[in-house]
Design goal:
The chain is an alpha+beta fold and 141 residues long. Helices cover 23% and strands 18% of the residues. The protein starts with a helix and ends with a strand.
Length: 141
């Protein structure tokens, strides 16, 4: 009887069809972590530099418990006059959090994406909303 069961299980395994895991529709709720009004009285290039440096400052604060990615090692926003668009670099950083920065110098286009797992409302203190397993957040600038 045991021998017959093993044979049946082996046949079922052999006939089993393997296919990729199905991706289901997901609901995306727009929220904003960064908000700014920029450029009052400054030229567009200076405004772009200040916005990039402010975003990198925010990201450095977020990454403070981890090794700091090279792409975030830029001056503080108040020191924007010492930074030039030629100093920008593209980069990718993955430590369970994924940070992608893309700099297109010809177009003067800088973009950033941070993808992170949900750790609840305050992972440092454990206060607030509990994390939802599997949920991820994406921030795009």
């Amino acid at each position: 009887m045991v021998e017959k069961q093993k044979t049946t299980e082996a046949n079922e395994e052999k006939n089993k069809e393997y296919k990729p895991v199905l991706l289901l529709p997901n609901i995306s709720y727009k929220t904003y972590q960064l908000y700014a009004i920029a450029g009052k009285g400054k030229n567009p290039e200076t405004t772009l530099i200040i916005c990039i440096l402010e975003t990198c400052k925010w990201l450095r604060e977020r990454f403070r418990a981890l090794d700091m990615p090279k792409i975030l090692q830029v001056p503080e926003p108040k020191d924007y006059k010492n930074f030039h668009l030629e100093d920008l670099r593209s980069g990718f950083y993955d430590v369970g959090y994924i940070l992608m920065v893309e700099w297109l110098p010809e177009e003067k286009n800088w973009s950033m994406m941070l993808n992170e797992p949900d750790h609840g409302s305050d992972p440092e203190t454990g206060d607030g909303r509990p994390a939802l397993p599997g949920r991820r957040f994406a921030t795009h600038v």
